[in-house]
Amino acid sequence: MKKYKIQVLIGFSLFVFGSVQAQKTDQFLSLDMGGGLHSMQYSLQNGKVKRQFGYGFHLSYSYFFNSHWGVQTGIGMQKCRSEATLNYQSSTSEIDSDGDSYEFRNRFDNWQEKQDVYFVDIPLSIQYQKMLGKKFGILAGLGAQISIPAQAAYETTGGEMVTTAYYSQWNVELYDLPQHGLGSLTTKYKGDISLNPSYSAIAELDGFYQVSEKIDVYAGCYCNYGFTNLISPEKKIVYQPDGVYNGILASDQVSKVDLLSFGLKVGVRFRINKVRRSISRKKGSINEAQTAEHSGPLLPAGSVKEELGIEAAKTGSMNEVQATEHSGLLLSADSVKEELDIEPVKSEIKTSVNKEETPIEKARQISDSMNLEFSFNSIELIKEQDSNFKILSNLLKENQEIQLQIIGHTCNIADYETNMIVGLKRAEYVKSKLIELGVPPFQMEIESRGLNEPLFENTSEENRAKNRRVEIKVISK
Fold first, then answer.
1. How confident is the model at residue 384 (pLDDT cuts 50, 70, 90)?
2. Total Cβ atoms within 10 A of residue 331
3. Which domains, ranges and CATH numbers included, belong to the chain?
């Protein structure tokens, strides 16, 4: 293991370096474990090999360049086991202590030996992911792996070995002389195995389920196939006349050993993208993580003070917010009085698109035509636009390289931080509408600009109404 410490260090350094590069693209830390046939694959000249059950676990880091493609590296461990059974008779020429030549014979009757090896794995693979539904998706990987033997040992488990000495010059075969190492042997032998690193091709196919925006669970199958010989072929015999047991893998019975493992696995992965959690007054934005702290009313009663001084219109005035009657309106009935004589939006929303345009241009055309305005202190749209939401969601589901930046805005009533929260909840509402239509959450980012970027000066109620909006920007990875 010591001579491979440089390879382990390099691989682990790449893993650590990658895991701290959290940007806006999807990045995950994954932990999985699996089991199946993990064995050394080889052939015996005079016997058979039986593959055994093994297991492994890995800690991995994935970085996705876009919504589909990424790379993965990490570090892990797997245990491999094989069992060999010998049935044959060997013969070698030897010289005894008196200088007479003889033939050392060794007969193996169901002689069994198991080999256990622990490998440290360092993989590097290309990954592909695709959503198949609102919560379900597939994840595939293909790449290479170096497996470094950390511990390798053998142990005999059964059978009989019978040794004799045949002197052809006298036509005599000596046996049952234990003082000379001749006779029936059932001794249990143990020892270490010297192995080389294995360079393997690896593949996996998993199905995953989004438990939350930060956590996925997955299950699937995997396969590792080694291309390099784990042993340096030896010309030793399994058991020497001087009583030394060399083991099967170090003998002339084996010429090539490959690593082979395949099976089923389960795992969990955690999205590790950086998320800003504080309000920035300079940039005037707040992100979606902030909403976790504000699940109650958007504005507390009495928090808004405004000089109205406006006569009621012919249609009369009314309290804009009545929390007991409207779930989306969150102020008490007497806290705010506003003039609501706002002309309805007269412009028609165009839902048709040019078939010759690219998907991202179509999505941009739809999003630009959507007039997403909200009532005062409300997170519900004044005018629902189900057809536009449906067209936009279909474009996003069919073209997952398209990303949306959903930005919430408010008028200037109430304080700065309250408006930042209101804007974010509005953006979150729009995102939830698209998620309900099957759009994967990773295709959307939300933030709030609050009162920082009004479309019109907040000098009248009509202008303030137009500033209470959500803006959808179409981008691509």
1. confident
2. 24
3. 2-271 (2.40.160.20), 286-305+348-476 (3.30.1330.60)
Confidence of residue 356 (pLDDT cuts 50, 70, 90): low
Cα 221 from Cα 204, distance rounded (Å)? 6
> What is the arithmetic mean of pLDDT over 329-345?
39
The CA angle 71-73-78, to the nearest 5 degrees, is 135
Return all residues near 400 (Cβ < 8 A) that are at least 6 apart: 67, 68, 130, 131, 440, 443
The string of DSSP letters for 303-364 reads: --------PPPTT--B-S--TTT-TTB-S-TTT--B----PPP-SPPP----TTS-HHHHHH
Q: Determine the distance from the C-alpha atom of residue 110 to the mean position of all C-alpha atoms in its chain, rounded to a whole number.
A: 46
Query: In 3D, which of 26, 6, 4 has the Cα closest to residue 14?
Result: 6
Separation between Cα atoms, residue 200 and residue 225, nearest integer Å: 5
Say if residues 267 and 217 touch (Cβ distance below 8 Å): yes
Closest CA to 419 of 467, 457, 384, 370: 467
Three-state secondary structure readout of 256-319: CEEEEEEEEEEEEEEECCCCCCCCECCCCEEEHHHHHHCCCCCCCCCCCCCCCCCCCCCCCCEC
What tokens appear for 86 in the block?
């010998």
Q: What is the pLDDT of residues 261-275, one digit of tens each?
A: 999 999 999 998 744
In 3D, which of 400, 370, 401, 397 has the Cα closest to residue 386?
370
CA dist 111 and 154 (Å) reads 13
CA atoms of 363 and 395, how far apart (whole Å): 7
The pLDDT value recorded for residue 214 is 87
Alpha-carbon distance values, 395 to 23, 389, 402, 474 (Å)? 25, 10, 8, 11
- HSE-CB at 340 with a 13 A cutoff on CA atoms is 13
Report angle CA 451, 454, 460 to the nearest 5 degrees.
95
- In whole angstroms, what is the distance from residue 183 CA to residue 176 CA? 4
According to the model, what pLDDT value does residue 190 have? 94
pLDDT digits (tens, 9 = 90+) for 34-76: 999 999 999 899 999 998 999 999 999 999 988 789 999 999 9
**How many beta carbons lie within 10 A of that of residue 384, not counting itself?**
10
The predicted-structure confidence for 195-234, as pLDDT tens digits, reads as follows: 999 999 999 999 999 998 789 999 999 999 999 999 987 7
Find where tokens 């030897």 sit. 94
Evaluate if residue 406 carries a pLDDT over 50: yes
The model's confidence at residue 415, banded by pLDDT at 50, 70 and 90, is confident
